[in-house]
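Quick one, tokens below:
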């Protein structure tokens, strides 16, 4: 069960990275934090160029991602769980 919870929290955190990148595609100067509903769950993200940090919790499983992106084209430079 714990592996399934971790898989779900990871998917939620990844969805928040995608949401942050979409926000940046629309508002290139976006900075700040937001909470995103993903189905019945939520995740949070913070954008501080060139960094995106996300947190997602499912049951007792937490996933924190730190992503560095290229502001010029929004490509991913690095991606790690912290």
């Amino acid at each position: 069960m714990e592996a399934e919870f971790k898989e779900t929290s990871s998917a939620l955190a990844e969805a928040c990275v995608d949401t942050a990148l979409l926000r940046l595609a629309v508002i290139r100067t976006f900075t700040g934090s937001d909470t995103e509903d993903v189905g019945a769950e939520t995740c949070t993200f913070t954008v501080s160029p060139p960094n995106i940090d996300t947190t997602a919790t499912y049951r007792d499983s937490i996933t924190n991602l730190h992503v560095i992106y290229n502001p010029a084209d929004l490509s991913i430079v690095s991606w790690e769980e912290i």
